[in-house]
Each structure stands twice: as structure tokens, then as C-alpha cells.
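Retry 2 of 3 after timeout on previous attempt. Resubmitting C-alpha cells to design endpoint.
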């Protein structure tokens, strides 16, 4: 049987774009790097680039550097934006077409279980680092269904900032829409946990349906719930524009 080649851990980390050799050496020394869940003890720990699971501070590092991939998914309701659920819930990985199962994919960011819409799924650690870096803080646009109509003052409150437990939200845009069942769109710059639901809850509204339709310059378009498509190199480059 053909055995797959291994490479020293530090080589793999630097080639995967996780950071400079010096930074990666520090990360290993400080016990921040794990291989298959075990803290790596040596720079030269042999790793198999297609089977071993390497993480820095819990974030997966792309091993298949030759073949990074980034998918856009329209997440359906009740699907979890994680790679594994201890309670046996269905995750985004469970609904990907078979041909993507061989990649070590994970979602970039999160959508609540009840939220539908645009979620990126990738195996590309460097792309993830860049997309989640505060300097790329993308606008995120959500369609929201609430019962009733916002008053002028409530709309201004959403746009000006809502006080949540951890502080004020930054300025947002609110538009009335007729995209049944949704009646508003809300564009925010942050990605705090359950942010949109908590913003509306502060004003006394329960969100009946929530869907993310855009992140930065990438729109969900007519991708149907449960469908997925690969992003083009151009779309990825545009996402990384500042
Ligand atoms: N805001 C929410 O409340 N939920 C999401 O899933 C995303 C943004």
C-alpha cells in the first residue's frame, strides 16, 4: 500500500500560511498547537497533510495547501454552524454534497440554528484568518421578519445604536422591504452573538424569521436553502478588498 508522506509540523504550519517560522516555533513552544487534539511537543512532529488535524488555539490550520476551497452555503433552519455536535444535531458538514466530504471544511463565523442564509465554509486557514481579522469587518445584511411595524423612533434607535449587555451596537441601516415573509432589512458591521435578535428584542420585538443575504460585497443571490456553490477566485479576492 502506498503510504502518504509526512512533513515536519513547523514546515506544514509555515507553508499553510499560519505565520512566520519564528511565530510558529513560539506557538509550538507555548503549547498552542495541537495535532489530532494532542499538544504538539516538537517542531518536527511528523504530520500527514491529508489526515492529521492541526489546530492553533483551537482554530484548524489548512493542511491541504494545494487545494484550498471556499464554499458559499445557504444554511437551512435547524442546521448547526459547527463541524460536530455532541448531541447529534445536524451540522453544515452533514448537508454538503458528497464531493466535498474529503475536505477538512469548517464554517467561517456562525449563524444561529434558527437563522438561514449565507455562510462561508472553507478549509483555508489563511483565508479564515483574513476574513475574520477586524480590519476586514464586513457589512452583513440580514432580512428580518417581525410582527408589526417599527415606529420612526425605533428605526432610529436601531440605526443609532442599541444598548446590549456588553455595550452599544455600532451604527446600522434599516430598510423596510417586501420580500415575504421578511419585512425589514438590517445591515450591521459587527458579528456579536445573536446580535440581530437581541437588538430587536430590546425594542420588544421577537424575530419570526432571520436570513443573512450578504456579507461584504458577496450576495447570496438565488442560491436556494441547502444549496452550496464554490466561490470563484475573483469573488474571494473581492471579499478581501478593504
Ligand atoms: N444575528 C442573530 O441574531 N443571529 C444570527 O444568526 C446572526 C446574526
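Retry 2 succeeded. Sequence:
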Amino acid at each position: 500500500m502506498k503510504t502518504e508522506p509526512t512533513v515536519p509540523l513547523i514546515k506544514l504550519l509555515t507553508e499553510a500560511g499560519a505565520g512566520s517560522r519564528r511565530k510558529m516555533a513560539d506557538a509550538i513552544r507555548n503549547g498552542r498547537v495541537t495535532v489530532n487534539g494532542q499538544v504538539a511537543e516538537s517542531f518536527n512532529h511528523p504530520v500527514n497533510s491529508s489526515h492529521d488535524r492541526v489546530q492553533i488555539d483551537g482554530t484548524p490550520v489548512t493542511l491541504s495547501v494545494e487545494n484550498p476551497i471556499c464554499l458559499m452555503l445557504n444554511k437551512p433552519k435547524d442546521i448547526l454552524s459547527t463541524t460536530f455536535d455532541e448531541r447529534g444535531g445536524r451540522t453544515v458538514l452533514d448537508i454538503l454534497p458528497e464531493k466535498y466530504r474529503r475536505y477538512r471544511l469548517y464554517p467561517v463565523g456562525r449563524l444561529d440554528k434558527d437563522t438561514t442564509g449565507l455562510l462561508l465554509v472553507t478549509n483555508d486557514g489563511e483565508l479564515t484568518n483574513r476574513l475574520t481579522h477586524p480590519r476586514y469587518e464586513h457589512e452583513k445584511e440580514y432580512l428580518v421578519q417581525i410582527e408589526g411595524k417599527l415606529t420612526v423612533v425605533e428605526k432610529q434607535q436601531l440605526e443609532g445604536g442599541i444598548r446590549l449587555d456588553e455595550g452599544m451596537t455600532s451604527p446600522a441601516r434599516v430598510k423596510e422591504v417586501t420580500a415575504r415573509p421578511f419585512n425589514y432589512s438590517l445591515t450591521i458591521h459587527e458579528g456579536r452573538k445573536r446580535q440581530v435578535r437581541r437588538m430587536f428584542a430590546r425594542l420588544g420585538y421577537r424575530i419570526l424569521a432571520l436570513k443573512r443575504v450578504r456579507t461584504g460585497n458577496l450576495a447570496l443571490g438565488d442560491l436556494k436553502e441547502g444549496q452550496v456553490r464554490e466561490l470563484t477566485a475573483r469573488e474571494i479576492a473581492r471579499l478581501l478588498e478593504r
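Attempt log closed. Residues 111-112, 115, 194-197, 210 surround uracil (CB under 6 Å).
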